[in-house]
Amino acid sequence: MIEAKSGLRANGSFIIILLLSILPQAATDLYLPSVAAMAQSFKVTLDLAQWTIAIFMVGMAISQLIYGPLSEGLGRKKPLLAGLILSFIGCAICLFAHSIEMLLMGRLLQGFGAGACSCLFRAILRDLFKGDTLVKYVSYLIMVYSAVAPAVPVLGGYLEYFFTWRASFMFLLGYTGLMVFLILAVLPESHRDAHHSKLKPTYLLGCFIQLLRSPLFMCYALFASIAAGSTFAWITSAPMLLIKGAGLTSIDFGWAMLVTSIIPTVCAGWMNPRLVKRFGVQWVLYFAWSLLFVSGGMFLLFYYFWHFLPAAIILPAAVFFFWSMFVYPNTYTMAFTPFGHIAGIAATLYAAIQMSGAALFSAIFSHFPWRTPIPLGFVLMGVALLSLMIYKLGLKRNLSID
Predict the structure, then answer these.
(1) How many helices (H) and strands (E) does the chain have?
(2) Is the N or the C terminus of the chain less surrounded, counting Cβ atoms within 10 Å?
(3) In 3D, which of 19, 46, 113, 15 has the Cα closest to residue 370?
């Protein structure tokens, strides 16, 4: 009976962790089908409306540098609750925004709050589970997240179609409020070794210096950053290519995003541990970046022959999502292997580097002329070559720990 209760408690905690991991992604993807409608509502350009993506990522990237260190001294729940409350306030501002400036301010605050979820769910998962149990729950998280995340734009498309773009923020407001309740009522404090002494600048500085001086950690964090940036290249361009270019409705757009991503990510998530076990991480990463290069080439080739035929955009994007699930789990695992003793701070720095790349790419790409898939194709091919070059140089410094 005790073991059964313990199992139920573990499963309940894992469900909350899973919901936390989805929240930042939902805050980005849910309203993607509504970007064009938002631009029209505020009578601004689509480029300016796309800045709501970049400014959210800026807030999330910066705030993660705060939540991780605080969680080492105060425990995980207090910083997490503070972040969720900030995100709740940001959602409310977005919901009632009467200008694009107010919407951008709300998105920035929402990003500052969501940084707590993005950073601390990894640390809580590591706190609560160890050994084979941790491996089991991480596998579950990747598979469920891969299936759920692509469905978010579908929901956003229906919300925008039957209501308005504000409905997405109403949904996020309720989601965030539910998370506040679950954290208060259900989730246990996972970091029992938290102590105020760990908030001392000398301790925190020493941990950050250790990570910053590690070529292995920084190299794999850089790969994650570049990968996140390329993902946001697709996110930034997708509404223009599929809605403006291919003429899809907001609902059609959501379903296109779902079909494009769910099957490739679930398949790759199932294949990745098996390929790593058989061939090693080095081979899998080379394979992944080769797929990314192929995806970029497909965008160029298919546009040349079929222009804005939806399949000419969806098929290369499916290869792109297939690539992503071979990169994210492996770079994260390789970066964290030697730093379990400072997992909270490592999660902070890793996530901040990853999200900084996403924010930088998103800000740059918001000014790109996404009227055709040509810029996206060249960006993805360039990212693939850059990653392969960095990894080859990294291997010369013995960064691989296969």
Answers:
(1) 15, 0
(2) N
(3) 46
Closest CA to 400 of 351, 330, 344: 330
Which residue has 């408690």 as its token pair? 9
Structure tokens at 295: 């995806």
pTM > 0.90: yes or no: no
Distances (CA, A) of 343 to 72, 230, 266, 348: 9, 26, 27, 8
Tell me the mean pLDDT per 10 residues along the chain, length 402. 45 82 84 82 82 84 82 84 93 91 92 87 76 63 72 81 87 93 83 69 84 86 84 78 81 78 79 82 86 92 88 88 80 74 78 75 68 85 86 62 46
Q: Are 280 and 402 in contact (CB under 8 A)?
A: yes
Q: How far apart are the C-alpha atoms of 156 and 171, rounded to whole Å?
A: 9
Angle at CA of residue 90, ends 88 and 94, nearest 5°: 115
| Angle at the Cα of 54 from the Cα atoms of 366 and 108, rounded to 5 degrees | 145
Query: Could you tell me which of 139, 128, 137, 133 has the C-alpha nearest to residue 77?
Result: 128
Hey, is 296 helix, strand or coil? helix
Q: Domain limits of the chain? A: 7-396
Amino acid at 237: S
Class of the CATH domain delimited by 7-396: mainly alpha
What is the rounded distance in angstroms from the CA atom of residue 35 to the CA atom of residue 69?
35
Q: Do 106 and 90 form a contact (C-beta atoms < 8 A)?
A: yes
